[in-house]
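> forwarded from #structure-qc
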């Protein structure tokens, strides 16, 4: 594949040039941004089993990480504060290390079947407070830490992106078998030589066992 190069004559470098391409936003889109959680935002978080966390490291390199648990796993501590348990992962610690370098974060909450989403921006802190972590235990396994979010902005996001994608529409679902397993894709991408089908099944089963053993 030939490397893509941006035509600099068409690149947008200034906000003034950007905004000239669009109509002014309507008043409600401006006023909907609030500094604290209202009752509907609280209920949305209570129902949500999934949130994406956007972070940046000290050099401005961006990352987005998915977090999922039973609905309501993100705790509302007060109108300006959330707590997110950190469950076992791959120990890359991208999100957590980024928070230490740059505490600004963006959250996107989703609810299966809802085309609307909830966006929250704020600043994050990591805590090992045992009293808080005790309330986040699942199957008697307590997380090692929690992410505390000091809320700066809260607003609901419209349904256009999800409706264009048909994300929850079963007619748009694709068979997982259309692509290789996660293990095979990673091994292919890092240049590992192909393995026999039986050995590949063993590797895939090992990943599933790891999921079972370390989910919490």
């Amino acid at each position: 594949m030939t490397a893509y190069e941006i035509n600099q004559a068409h690149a947008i470098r200034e906000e003034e040039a950007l905004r000239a391409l669009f109509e002014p936003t309507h008043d409600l889109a401006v006023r909907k941004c609030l500094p604290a959680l209202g009752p509907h935002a609280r209920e949305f978080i209570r129902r949500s089993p999934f949130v994406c966390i956007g972070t940046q490291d000290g050099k401005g390199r961006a990352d987005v990480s998915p977090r999922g648990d039973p609905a309501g796993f993100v705790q509302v501590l007060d109108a300006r504060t959330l707590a997110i348990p950190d469950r076992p992962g791959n120990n890359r610690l991208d999100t957590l290390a980024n928070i230490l370098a740059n505490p600004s974060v963006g959250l996107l909450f989703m609810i299966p079947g809802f085309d609307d989403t909830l966006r929250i921006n704020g600043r994050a802190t990591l805590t090992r407070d045992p009293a808080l972590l005790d309330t986040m235990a699942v199957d008697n396994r307590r997380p090692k830490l929690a992410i505390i979010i000091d809320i700066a902005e809260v607003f609901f996001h419209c349904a256009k992106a999800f409706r264009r994608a048909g994300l929850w529409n079963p007619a748009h679902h694709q068979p997982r078998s259309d692509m290789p397993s996660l293990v095979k894709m990673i091994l292919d991408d890092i240049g590992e030589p192909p393995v026999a089908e039986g050995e590949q099944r063993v590797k895939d089963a090992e990943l599933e066992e790891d999921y079972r053993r370390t989910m919490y």
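QC bot note: Strands lie at 50-56, 62-68, 75-78, 81-85, 104-110, 117-127, 146-157. The longest strand covers residues 146-157.
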